[in-house]
Design brief:
Largest sheet: 7 strands, mixed
Order of helices and strands: EHEHHEEHEHEEHH
Number of helices: 7
Strand content: 15-25%
Number of strands: 7
Radius of gyration: 17 Å
Distance between the termini: 45 Å
Length: 216
C-alpha cells in the first residue's frame, strides 16, 4: 500500500515588522484551513508560511539578474506546487506592498492556474478594506488563480473584536475563509457539496468572481 502525499497549504506573508499582524493573520488563516481539512479527510496536512521580508534582497536581485537564489526558488516552488494558497499583505499607499507585488511578479502568469487562493490584508484603518477587491483580486485573476469568495481584512481595531449583531468579527471571517479554502482543496463547492471538475474550472472570469464576492 503506497503512502498518500500530504495536502499542502502555503501562506505568503508580506509583513515587514517582527512581530507582525500580517504574519499573525497568515498563521490564523492557515490554522483555520488546516483544522477544517483535518476534520474532513484522513490525509496529513502540511502548512508552510513564507516570510517575504526574509527574501527581500533575493527578490530584488532576481528582478535585476533574472536568476533566483536557492531560498527564493524554494519559496516560488512551494507556492506553485501548493494545493491551496493564502496571500496576505499589509496595505501601503492604498494598495498591496511593493515587496508583495515584486514576489508575485516573479511567478509565471500560468503557474497558479486553477489554484484556490484566499486573499487577505492588514491595515491601520478599515477605510482601506477595499484593497482586497481593487488590487488583490485583479492580481490573482491575472495569475489565473481561483480567488475564493471570502477575503479577510484586519484593521487594528479588529484584533480582539468579536463583532456585533450586524457584522462578523475577525475570528468568524477567518474560520469562514479557511473553510472555503479547505472545501476548494478537496474539490468541493464553497457550500461543501462535491462536484466533478469541468473544462472551465481552471480559469474563473474576473466578472464572475465580482458577481459572487462578498465584502468583509
Amino acid at each position: 500500500m503506497f503512502a498518500t502525499a500530504p495536502l499542502r497549504i502555503v501562506a505568503v506573508s508580506a509583513g515587514l515588522s517582527s512581530p507582525s499582524s500580517t504574519r499573525l493573520l497568515a498563521d490564523r488563516l492557515a490554522g483555520a484551513a488546516r483544522e477544517r481539512l483535518e476534520a474532513d479527510q484522513d490525509r496529513r496536512v502540511d502548512v508552510q508560511v513564507i516570510e517575504l521580508r526574509d527574501l527581500a534582497v533575493d527578490i530584488a536581485n532576481n528582478l535585476v539578474t533574472g536568476f533566483p537564489p536557492r531560498a527564493l526558488k524554494d519559496a516560488i516552488d512551494a507556492v506553485t506546487e501548493a494545493d491551496g494558497l493564502i496571500a496576505v499583505t499589509p496595505v501601503f499607499t492604498a494598495s498591496y506592498s511593493g515587496l508583495f507585488k515584486s514576489f508575485f511578479d516573479l511567478i509565471d502568469h500560468t503557474a497558479l492556474t486553477g489554484k484556490p487562493v484566499v486573499v487577505a490584508a492588514t491595515g491601520g484603518t478599515a477605510r482601506h478594506s477595499l484593497v482586497l477587491e481593487h488590487a488583490l483580486r485583479p492580481l490573482f485573476a491575472y495569475l489565473r488563480a481561483v480567488t475564493l469568495p471570502t477575503s479577510v481584512y484586519a484593521a487594528s481595531e479588529d484584533w480582539g473584536s468579536s463583532g456585533d449583531e450586524y457584522t462578523e468579527g475577525l475570528p468568524s471571517r477567518i474560520r469562514r475563509a479557511g473553510g472555503e479554502l479547505a472545501s476548494a482543496v478537496l474539490g468541493r463547492t464553497v457550500s461543501g457539496a462535491s462536484r466533478a471538475p469541468g473544462l472551465d474550472d481552471a480559469v474563473v472570469p474576473f466578472e464572475q468572481q465580482l458577481a459572487d464576492l462578498r465584502l468583509d
